[in-house]
Amino acid sequence: MSLTLLEKKPFPLKNHVELGLKARRSTYTALESVKGISFHWDLAEILEFDKLWKEGMKQQRTTLEMIVKLSAYFERSATDVLLLVIDRAEQGKLGRINDLDFLKGTDNWPYQR
User: Keywords in UniProt for this one (predicted)?
Assistant: First the structure.
């Protein structure tokens, strides 16, 4: 017995739903086609970034100030640094981030609480 196209699923929904993910038939990868953005950092840069971030937070610098300063320090775009901030924050390496006004009040930004 053959399945019609409507009966076919692109992936096992049960496993996908168990992970808390939405089912998608096709995907779009954010930033995939943007030129000039690099997701790659040297591990020594990550250690230096973490150290400089902690120093900046002790000096009560804002996240925006830190992104601008670190962008200049590493000679990277502000977007590269912002993506690294998000990555490090998701891994719990940056502590609390309270001053990203455009994200305050959203349910899925845990670093403001």
Answer: Plasmid
pTM of the model: 0.65
| CA gap 80, 49 in Å, rounded | 12
Give dist(CA 75, CA 73) in Å, integer.
Answer: 6
Count of C-beta atoms within a 10 Å radius of residue 78: 13
Cα(5)–Cα(47) distance, integer angstroms:
50
pLDDT tens string for the chain (113 positions)?
455 555 555 555 455 555 566 666 777 777 878 888 888 999 999 999 999 999 998 998 888 999 999 999 999 999 999 999 988 887 888 876 766 645 555 555 555 43
What is the maximal distance between C-alpha atoms in the chain? 68
